[in-house]
Design a protein that fits this description.
heterodimer; A: mainly beta; Methylamine Dehydrogenase, Chain H; five-stranded mixed sheet; 4 helices; 33 strands; globular; B: alpha+beta; Glutaredoxin; Cytochrome Bc1 Complex, Chain D, domain 2; 3 domains; two-stranded antiparallel ribbon; 15 strands; elongated
Chain lengths: ~450, ~625
């Protein structure tokens, strides 16, 4: 519809101004449609060629300086250092480095440690090729009232919302969402709904376990979605020991919770059995759904709005043979909502699902990335996919299968073609985990073709 | 000439704002290119007062100029009012930047017209970040269309860049002058739109960027703050004051498809402290007088200090572990969530964390009995690389000396500063207070109350003391019962663990009621080499001591699953079944371990009996533990 048909200007000069306004806005997708391709919609995004990949890396005893570090890799094909490690910042200790993400203005990268619950804040604006550790939050547990294991760092306007995985009382899975300002000041703790305090949420099935894992927002629906994994006891335990420990295996999350994004109040608790991990929401204006995958039961679940405007959850596809426990880990959605990449840790594969029909995802491609694979990060255009190997320090494979790599593949729509690989053990770095992108152009003062509010870099 | 051009742009910018402000009739199906603030909110705004807006910190002060040219500080303008603060530059023609902010503020001003209760309490502020161009005169011109009465609106600028920059920093306004491809200034700025809602006490309560800056949302927030200041905060709805005294993450029945959670809110894990000194000295039915070593008599000060040390997570190498992370009060002072413990960095501990209820009565400590005094035992976990991981005694002592909240506490308890002995004595003193007797069994057996024990449990007791022979190791005396002989025995379980071959497949439960068989090869890929465990032999190197482990007390046994030294048996019934089979034959099997030939009913009765051994003081001790500081910093 042409908006001018619905507006009656009061006077000619206003009409001129309005025309100007609409002309300016017409070419500008303000609501950031995606990042590259899984981060907060409130954040600046890189829509062109990324220059750097920041790899939040776990220190390994006996490897290099044995401590966690943020590793910067040059990934601009025009650079002489393409595919090389160009910087590394060690942070002290092995903190179970895990996830990281930027503040909404993309000036700072927040990187969390699931063990020590420290959060390391890097300035990535001053020199994107050399992130600088500018702040370490050491009192996350105390400030939050006992939340352990800061996991997802997710940008909301002016603040970061952080999923906890555990607590300092029993190291189990009951935990919370925690908010901080971009400056690193504690704001609030939002405990996950439990049976003894559902906080007004509706327990739609049998479970309200109080566990947490990932968080994603769908702003136009005022929706926040969280998933559930397990507590410190399990994510820090040797994987083989845990698999054979019947008690430990009872302590996994089986829930997805929908929240009111604005008020941070939980609305519905859904049964999603088998540890639903990463959440990816669709970007299309009318695509009111998100996906998650269950690590233990190996299913794709659709969290969707039904015809009555109610949010629901249902399993829509299996991933590999669930009885083999392929262990789906990271997932990545394409910017057109047509493709979902699903990594399975145990068989080291990445699988592409056609999600054009979100109710019936169909696997259309798979490739073995390595002996093990965990994270996948896609460029905005979906042509470049970066893979890293490490899941958790004590869950990674042992012996020869303990490959630790960062690999870049090119996706031509039919096939993944390897471009480069870095052996993080040979480089004496450690276990590579989360990958985030950097670009000089994000911070360029050169006028962009498009509107600043788009927050995009072409 | 330049000035004329600039003013023209300024006028256009204002017209743009007005035009956009007039376009609210655009329905929800406007093109996606417009910021959400221009259209109808696609969902119902939250009901004011139904939620809270936690403080995002103090709103910073700064020196600014009114559009009259009068100097003023931000805090003077904030005083006693709610404030909506936006940053703009007057020539900004980015429809989704400054004009959006001004339009939203204008919309709010219009919506609140006729709301006298807010007129004196809310102030709108628009501050330029381009003082070179945006003089007070320019800001006056910019704002003149919005001075229509009602909510007042100040259009501010600054005198100097040096006065502006601290404000921009404090309010996260990253502002860069834009240049063209040749490096020439374009006169525009690259910035991230931010609007702040500040309460009457100068605290930032919300921050809005382009994606969420919508008049209806901001109005809800303003109204919420207004209601908040006129009504006291309410407690969370339906939240009981404290959680029941039990493991908060109850997984009973998890193996069944119809399992339902029974989880307790951590925020409710709270209770009153107890007078542990008095508690420990009070006679307890079924237990002998509390033994205390002559060189470590109990005092209130030692108990209090020991309790603080016991729960302090800072007393591990990486500040993540206290004694209580494995000896969890509501989990029977053990850990019910895994078979064998794990220490710092998730390192494997070979054995199940034993309960420390009634540990004062033990003369043999650890599963292999390698310590005999609590004062010494304390240091084992402190220094074990796979438990609390401290590098040395001195490192712990030095840490305690450096922690301000310990200042004076050792001196008060021991008349000297922190030392290895004092730490051991303090923690041992606290642990000795964890006395729990007066169980239904005690009231029946020692208290002579016939109705204190169910008939089934009474039958169980008869088996326990008779046919099953359990009492031979889990002793019961004439006046009291420790349910342990403080000796070590080989039941064959350790032998079995050492000698068993890995099964081809292992059942792995992946969800309630869902179990898959996982191959040994799959598990082997991700499993460390399983550490051996030879029990008492590791202390004596006597082959006859292979796979001997200490007899645990059975008091509170219903609270301390999973069972046995390796935590490999999940229920009391399975434990009884294990002994009913006569343990596992091996050359060192204790002769007391024999097949028992118990029937199903007898097994049930024995379990009933074991469940009658839960002491009456559990709630008091757990509640006290919940009130202890955890030692976060």
């Amino acid at each position: 519809m042409n908006p001018s048909q619905t507006i009656t200007p009061r006077q000619p000069v206003l009409a001129i101004a309005l025309g100007l306004a609409l002309a300016m806005t017409a070419a500008v997708p303000v609501q950031s449609l995606a990042d590259e391709t899984c981060a907060s919609p409130y954040m600046k995004k890189i829509t062109g060629q990324e220059d750097f990949v920041y790899v939040w890396t776990l220190g390994v005893e006996g490897v290099g300086d044995e401590q966690d570090k943020l590793v910067t890799v040059d990934v601009n094909p025009k650079s002489e250092k393409f595919g090389k490690v160009i910087n590394s910042v060690s942070v002290g200790g092995r903190n179970e480095a895990h996830h990281s993400d930027f503040t909404d203005d993309r000036q700072f990268l927040w990187a969390g440690g699931l063990d020590t619950s420290k959060i390391f804040v890097f300035d990535v604006k001053t020199d994107p090729s050399k992130p600088k550790l500018v702040k370490t939050l050491t009192d996350f547990v105390a400030k939050s009232g006992g939340v352990v294991g800061p996991h997802t760092m997710y940008a909301l306007p002016g603040r970061m919302i952080i999923t906890g995985l555990s607590n300092n009382k029993d190291h189990g899975g009951r935990t919370a969402l925690v908010e901080y300002t971009n400056e690193g000041e504690y704001v609030a703790t939002h405990w996950m709904p439990t049976d003894s305090d559902l906080q007004g949420a509706i327990k739609t099935g049998n479970f309200a376990d109080g566990y947490n894992y990932d968080v994603r927002a769908l702003p136009r629906k005022n929706l926040l979605v969280t998933s559930s994994f397990t507590g410190w006891n399990n994510y820090m335990m040797d994987f083989g020991k845990m698999l054979t420990d019947a008690e430990a295996m009872k302590h996994f999350g089986n829930t997805v919770v929908t929240w009111d994004l604005h008020t941070k109040q939980p609305k519905k608790v859904f049964d999603v059995p088998g540890a639903p991990l990463e959440i990816r929401c669709a970007w299309g204006e009318s695509h009111n759904y998100c996906f998650t995958t269950t690590a233990l039961t190996s299913q794709i679940w659709l969290i969707h709005e039904d015809a009555k405007g109610e949010w629901q959850a249902k399993a829509v596809a299996d991933i590999g043979n669930p009885k083999d426990i392929p262990l789906p880990v990271d997932i990545s959605i394409s910017n057109d909502d047509k493709l979902l990449w699903v990594n399975t840790f145990m068989d080291g594969k990445t699988r592409a699902f056609d999600i054009s029909n979100p109710e019936k995802p169909v696997q259309i491609y798979e490739k073995t990335i390595g002996a093990q694979v965990n994270m996948v990060s896609s460029s905005w255009d979906g042509k470049r996919l970066y893979y890293s190997s490490s899941l958790l320090a004590n869950w990674d494979k042992k012996g020869k299968d303990n490959e630790q790599f960062l690999k870049l593949f090119q996706w031509d729509g039919k096939e993944l073609k390897p471009t480069f690989a870095i052996d993080f053990l040979a480089e004496k770095l450690g276990r590579p985990h989360q990958m985030r992108f950097g670009a000089h152009a994000l911070y360029s003062q050169v006028a962009q073709q498009s509107d600043k509010a788009q927050l995009a870099v072409k | 000439m330049m000035k004329t051009e600039t003013c023209r742009r300024c006028t256009l910018s204002l017209l743009l704002v007005l035009a956009l402000a007039s376009s609210f009739s655009v329905a929800a199906d406007e093109p996606p290119s417009q910021a959400p603030g221009y259209g109808a909110l696609p969902y119902s705004p939250p009901k004011p007062g139904s939620y809270t807006l936690p403080s995002m910190g103090e709103a910073a002060d700064g020196q600014v100029l009114e559009s009259s040219g009068q100097p003023v500080t931000l805090h003077q303008l904030y005083a006693g009012r709610m404030v909506l603060l936006s940053f703009i530059y007057a020539t900004c023609d980015d429809a989704n930047g400054c004009p959006l902010a001004t339009m939203v503020l204008h919309r709010i001003q219009s919506a609140l017209r006729g709301r006298p209760e807010l007129e004196g309490r809310l102030r709108l502020i628009t501050l330029s970040f381009n003082p070179k161009h945006d003089t007070p005169e320019v800001m006056a011109k910019y704002g003149e269309s919005f001075q229509s009465g009602g909510i007042d609106w100040h259009f501010l600028t600054t005198r100097l860049e040096t006065e502006l920059q601290p404000i921009l920093r404090d309010y996260q306004q990253s502002v860069d002058r834009e240049v063209d491809a040749q490096g020439h200034p374009t006169g525009k700025f690259s910035h991230l739109l931010r609007v702040y809602l500040i309460d009457e006490e100068r605290r930032i309560r919300n921050s809005y960027t382009v994606s969420v800056l919508h008049p209806d949302l901001v109005l809800s927030d303003i109204e919420t703050l207004r209601l908040e200041s006129s009504a006291p905060a309410r407690p969370a709805a339906n939240a009981p004051a404290s959680a029941p005294i039990r493991a908060g993450d109850d997984k009973s029945g998890y193996e069944r498809p119809d399992y339902q959670t029974n989880s307790a809110a951590l925020a409710q894990r709270q209770g009153p402290p107890a007078d542990l000194f008095r508690w420990a000295r009070h006679p307890v039915l079924g237990l002998p007088p509390l033994p205390t070593p002559a060189d470590n008599p109990m005092t209130r000060e030692k108990i209090a200090l020991g309790r603080k040390l016991f729960y302090d997570r800072r007393l591990s190498l990486n500040q993540t572990f206290s004694c209580a992370m494995c000896h969890i009060p509501e989990q029977g002072f053990t850990s019910q969530e895994q078979a064998t413990a794990i220490g710092i960095e998730g390192r494997t501990v070979r054995r199940n964390a034993p309960t420390i209820y009634n540990v004062a009565y033990l003369t043999s400590l650890f599963h292999d009995g390698r310590e005999s005094k609590l004062e010494n035992q304390v240091w084992g976990p402190f220094l074990a690389a796979n438990e609390m991981g401290n590098p040395s005694v001195g490192a712990v002592i030095d840490k305690l000396k450096s922690l301000p909240d310990y200042r004076g506490l050792f001196e008060k308890a021991f008349r000297r500063g922190p030392s290895m002995d004092a730490v051991g004595q303090a923690i041992a003193s606290y642990e000795r207070t964890l006395v729990s007797g007066d169980a239904p069994f005690d009231r029946w057996h020692y208290g002579r109350r016939a109705d204190a024990l169910s008939p089934a449990a009474q039958r169980g007791y008869a088996l326990f003391a008779g046919k099953a022979g359990c009492v031979q190791c889990h002793t019961i005396g004439a006046k009291s019962a420790l349910f342990t002989d403080n000796q070590l025995h080989n039941t064959g379980l350790g032998y079995q663990e050492s000698m068993r071959r890995e099964p081809a497949t292992t059942p792995v439960q992946v969800a309630p009621g869902v179990t898959f068989d996982l191959s040994a090869a799959s598990i082997g890929q991700v499993a460390e080499t399983r550490p051996g465990d030879l029990g008492r032999y590791e202390v004596t190197q006597n082959p006859a001591d292979r796979w001997k482990y200490r007899t645990p007390s059975l008091r509170n046994i219903a609270l301390t699953a999973p069972y046995m030294h390796h935590g490999g048996i999940g229920s009391l019934r399975e434990v009884v079944e294990f002994y009913n089979r006569g343990g596992v034959p091996n050359e060192n099997l204790d002769p007391l371990i024999q097949p028992l030939h118990l029937g199903e009913d007898e097994i049930e009765s024995l379990v009933d009996f074991l469940e009658s051994l839960t002491g009456s003081g559990v709630d008091t001790l757990v509640s006290d533990a919940w009130s202890a500081p955890v030692g976060e910093r």
